[in-house]
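Severity: low
Component: inverse-folding endpoint
Summary: output formatting inconsistent between runs
Steps to reproduce: submit the following structure tokens with default settings.
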């Protein structure tokens, strides 16, 4: 008879997680490195006791906000190419629901994230416990059911033995490239402390194999036929190319068959920005070069992309009336988007097989035209990197350029929301395949700062630069404290433009005056938020949390601060960069579908609505 070990549910879960490994291409990696946690009455005597008293190798990280630590964990997993995770443990109630946003971010970006959310009593006898929101329609429903909408897998554990099947299902999802995302195990707080005689084999080392899905012969034939029938194909390099480690295969495919390519936010950096066929970012926040080529493409070959509205310019970007789509992806949900021919296979395996089937075939794309478009775009980048202020201050694009030129090849830029992701996808020149880390699937404000902490944990040898707007910093800066606590040198590049500049720009582009997007004081005469700008000394705020900090009002001050900051190695540094309002880069040959008022007294808004209708008519209906 199998040996059994009497443990509490929480103790069993900690021991199980400590024994999980993944294997890919013959390389074995410990999957769970540690646990982020914030303790409350829903988990401190459960998971907390287990981590403290159960023999394990998991490192405990003390988060300061449940969403913040969740975003740090997600960024850590992404920077590790989804081969390592740090689960996040919370108490019940607000502690748990704070992680819902992080879970949504993970699922949107196809990143593994494990939420261990405290839940109410399985016995229901102490109900309603502190922080329990009673759901009148069903006493069996708790606030943790909100995770169901944003998780790939959800399970509520109400008996200690249930953790065995739940943990296996959780790992199945977390290690599946086609199905990965957020997983939530809602742990009833009384059951966390209940014991069960677990079989010893549950705690043996378990290796999850991440196998490459091969392309079938018929898929190879269909793909080769479509490509050979095209004249002006265009490749899109998505995040799946990075996770598949298919960069070399992608480059060889593009070079041999003369096919230019554009990059998504998740794919950018996989291949060098100066590769002759690399047209840069594509779509709403893309380059002029990539978008102009996309207009004329008769075949779009998406490799590892989920075709978000930013990548496709709300399905308007591809203007060739005969354009077709060939989509290589391990996830069926993504492979058949844009009414495309879906190739369900690993990116590297598919590219190698299709390359062989194509033989010496070359596209009819004029490579001299591609070179000319790249050269023109590079000139635009240099102009924006050296842009003088229009109002005597400091332009945002110049600040981005100064930081980019200061970075070493191995340094990592992290960003997520506002106008900065657009500047980075258009203008940033990454050093290597792991130096560009932008979360733009969910555009989660706060990911930039909190995520940079997770990136530094994953890649401590590199300098990490978090590109943050003042609005994002005010919304979620909790893990600055964690970076100080852990002695992590993270460079928080805070761009202070007195508001949510990206959304203000969106307003203004659609004929609306600025409303609710500029940080101004309440005018005591008009009663409106149209008084003077709210004065904030972000450098002083950062120093109060234990950071080194600089205030930069000119290019020269930023350059000097970057050089001076090199002396610090174990403390975060914040750069309070005072940039001109509205000095971000603008769109190039793209369009984004946003709701414009159909009825308005403002003639300019009426014109904006007509423009919307015209673009919708030109977009593809998929």
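Observed output (run 2 of 3):
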């Amino acid at each position: 008879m199998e040996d059994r070990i009497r443990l509490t549910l929480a103790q069993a879960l900690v021991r199980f997680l400590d024994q999980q490994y993944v294997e890919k291409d013959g390389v074995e990696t410990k999957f769970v490195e540690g646990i982020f946690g914030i303790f409350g009455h829903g988990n401190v005597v459960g998971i907390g006791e287990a981590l403290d008293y159960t023999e394990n190798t998991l490192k405990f990280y003390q988060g300061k906000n449940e969403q913040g630590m969740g975003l740090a964990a997600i960024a850590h997993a992404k920077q590790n190419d989804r081969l390592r995770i740090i689960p996040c443990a919370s108490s019940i109630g607000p502690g748990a629901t704070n992680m819902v946003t992080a879970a949504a971010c993970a699922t949107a970006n196809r990143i593994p994230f494990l939420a261990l959310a405290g839940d109410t009593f399985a016995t229901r006898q102490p109900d309603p416990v502190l922080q329990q929101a009673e759901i009148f329609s069903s006493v069996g429903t708790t606030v943790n059911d909100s995770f169901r909408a944003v998780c790939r897998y959800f399970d509520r554990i109400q008996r200690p033995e249930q953790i065995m099947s739940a943990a296996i299902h959780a790992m199945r999802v977390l290690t599946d490239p086609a199905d990965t995302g957020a997983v939530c195990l809602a742990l009833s707080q009384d059951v966390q402390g209940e014991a069960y005689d677990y079989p010893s084999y549950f705690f043996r080392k378990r290796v999850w194999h991440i196998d490459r899905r091969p392309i079938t012969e018929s898929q190879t034939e269909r793909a080769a036929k479509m490509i050979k029938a095209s004249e002006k194909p265009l490749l899109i390099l998505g995040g799946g190319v990075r996770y598949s480690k298919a960069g070399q295969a992608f480059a060889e495919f593009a070079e041999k068959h003369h096919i230019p390519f554009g990059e998504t936010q998740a794919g950018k950096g996989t291949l060098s920005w100066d590769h002759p066929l690399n047209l840069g970012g594509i779509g709403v926040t893309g380059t002029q070069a990539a978008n102009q080529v996309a207009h004329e493409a008769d075949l779009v070959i998406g490799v590892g992309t989920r075709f978000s509205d930013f990548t496709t310019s709300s399905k308007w970007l591809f203007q060739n009336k005969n354009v077709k789509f060939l989509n290589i992806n391990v996830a069926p949900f993504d492979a058949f988007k844009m009414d495309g021919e879906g190739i369900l296979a690993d990116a590297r395996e598919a590219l190698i097989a299709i390359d062989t089937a194509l033989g010496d075939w070359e596209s009819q794309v004029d490579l001299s035209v591609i070179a000319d478009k790249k050269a023109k775009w590079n000139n635009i980048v240099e102009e924006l990197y050296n842009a003088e202020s229009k109002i005597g201050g400091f332009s945002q694009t110049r600040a981005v350029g100064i930081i980019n030129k200061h970075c070493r090849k191995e340094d990592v830029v992290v960003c997520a929301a506002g106008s900065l992701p657009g500047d980075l996808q258009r203008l940033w020149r990454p050093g290597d395949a792991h130096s560009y880390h932008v979360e733009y699937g969910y555009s989660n404000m706060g990911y930039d700062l909190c995520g940079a902490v997770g990136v530094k944990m994953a890649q401590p040898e590199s300098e990490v630069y978090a590109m943050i707007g003042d609005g994002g910093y005010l919304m979620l800066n909790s893990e600055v404290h964690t970076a100080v606590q852990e002695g992590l040198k993270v460079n928080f590049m805070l761009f202070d433009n007195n508001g949510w500049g990206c959304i203000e720009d969106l307003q203004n582009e659609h004929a609306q005056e600025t409303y609710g997007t500029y940080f101004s004081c309440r005018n005591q005469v008009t009663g409106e938020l149209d008084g003077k700008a709210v004065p904030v000394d972000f450098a002083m705020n950062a120093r109060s949390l234990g950071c080194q900090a600089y205030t930069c009002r000119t290019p020269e001050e930023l350059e000097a601060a970057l050089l001076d900051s090199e002396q610090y190695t174990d403390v975060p540094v914040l750069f309070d960069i005072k940039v001109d309002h509205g000095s971000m880069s603008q769109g190039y040959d793209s369009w984004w579908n946003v709701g414009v008022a159909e009825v308005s007294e403002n003639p300019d808004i009426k014109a904006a609505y007509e423009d919307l209708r015209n673009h919708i008519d030109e977009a593809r209906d998929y």
